[in-house]
Write a structure and sequence with these properties.
Number of helices: 16
Radius of gyration: 21 Å
Largest sheet: none
Oligomer: single chain
Length: 421
């Protein structure tokens, strides 16, 4: 028991450190670009990074969540690896197709494609992290993310100071990811994967089929968060894009905190569901939700008191002082998103994914219409309002659906228990 606690603590700490640094990299990248390359380039970086994040869900496809919570273990590690290679190739094809459809300038086109390639290397590495986590080596993935995050950021900064060129700087960060994957991730995973294991291509294809709704939900989820940015890309300037990027960036801390809390408990949630212990399952989920709500309340308060001042110091942009209320509203809306994410993980663990697809289709429609109408009419205030309406609507739908499904699962488990007795 003592050994299990030590392993959990080690996994928890390294996961927080690695995931935290990796998630904050986008913030640090934006600071570097703003300070060295200027606000216009920061706007280009912001929308291109948003695109890379959306297409990142294609690279991940079902992601580590389904890999780790795979109760039956019918799909082997090599099957997941081949599936991930395929999804990453597809991700890059879509990236190239997207930038040409948008008609970007050569400079913006290259920045977008390279940022997508940067995220593709992360998507591929994540399949290795899933293998590590299933073997109780989550801390190894945290160490890998720490190396990549610190190494990539440092190299990006140095190259950008010397060259003042986004394209060369992103290429350097990509190289750090690849080198770390080869000399760290691959060596660990090589020892964990059964060498005698044969690739089952029917399994590779079945992952695309069976996990489609998980992928669709992830894709839609990232689009929903970035819909205002695409409306800004259509109706406003690169400078306004950068400004919105500055005030929405702190909200990612809410999602980050939620992942910190949730990721180490994935195996535990799977075990509780396998044991049909819905009381403990729901109890654990409630504790996580309370923690996130408490942190969210603190974040909103901090944003109101010192948020714009801190952002002005970080980015060196005075106009941020005019967006205090926008900042608070956006952070509050992301607390709703965090609650939805928790329910997403719970429903995915119980393999209820189609209903989530329906929720996300509705949410995407609300986000698309709302962001385009409101941004065109009210600028950044419209983007803020659109973000809030969309994420609150999503929260309400997830809350209601989760309650209904959990009631049905508990009822089914009780009937099965009676039959067994």
């Amino acid at each position: 028991m003592e050994q299990e606690k030590k392993i959990f603590l080690k996994n928890f700490i390294w996961n927080i450190l690695g995931t935290g640094l990796n998630s904050f990299n986008s913030l640090f990248f934006l600071i570097i670009v703003t300070r060295i390359n200027g606000v216009n380039d920061a706007g280009i970086f912001s929308i291109c990074y948003a695109t890379a994040l959306i297409l990142y869900t294609v690279g991940l496809y079902s992601g580590r969540l389904c890999q780790v919570t795979d109760i039956e273990n019918k799909v082997k590690d090599k099957d997941y690896i081949i599936n991930r290679i395929t999804s990453c190739i597809l991700m890059m094809i879509l990236a190239i197709f997207f930038v040409f459809i948008k008609g970007y300038t050569i400079y913006k086109l290259l920045v977008c494609i390279l940022l997508c390639l940067y995220k593709a290397t992360e998507a591929f590495a994540d399949i290795f992290y899933g293998i590590m986590q299933k073997n109780e080596l989550l801390y190894k993935s945290g160490q890998s993310l720490t190396i990549k995050s610190l190494g990539g950021l440092t190299v990006f900064l140095i190259i950008d100071i010397i060259c003042k060129n986004l394209i060369i700087s992103i290429l350097a960060a990509i190289l750090v990811n690849i080198i770390t994957m080869l000399i760290f991730d691959f060596i660990i995973v090589k020892k964990l994967v059964n060498k005698e294991e044969k690739i089952n291509f029917s399994n590779v294809i079945n992952i695309f089929k069976t996990e489609f709704f998980v992928f669709a939900n992830s894709f839609a989820g990232i689009y929903v968060l970035n819909a205002p940015k695409y409306a800004i890309d259509t109706y406003l300037t690169e400078d306004m894009q950068a400004m919105f990027g500055y005030i929405i960036m702190p909200a990612t801390v809410i999602s980050l905190f939620t992942q910190f809390i949730f990721m180490p408990y994935l195996n535990k949630l799977k075990e509780l569901y396998e044991k049909k212990d819905m009381k403990a399952f729901k109890g654990l989920a409630l504790k996580i939700k309370i923690s996130v709500l408490a942190f969210g309340a603190f974040a909103v308060l901090a944003a109101y008191v010192v948020g714009p001042e801190v952002l002005r110091i970080i980015y060196g942009v005075k106009d941020l002082l005019n967006y205090r209320i926008n900042l608070c509203i956006i952070i509050a809306s992301h607390v709703f998103y965090a609650m939805s994410y928790i329910n997403l993980v719970l429903l995915t663990t119980t393999r209820n994914t189609f209903v989530q697809f329906v929720i996300y289709v509705i949410t995407m429609i609300v986000a698309f219409i709302g962001s385009n109408v409101l941004v065109k009419a009210k600028g950044i205030d419209g983007a803020t309002l659109s973000c809030t309406i969309t994420l609150f609507a999503q929260f309400v739908m997830y809350f209601v659906i989760t309650k209904i499904i959990f009631y049905r699962i508990e009822k089914r488990f009780k009937l099965e228990e009676k039959v067994e007795n």
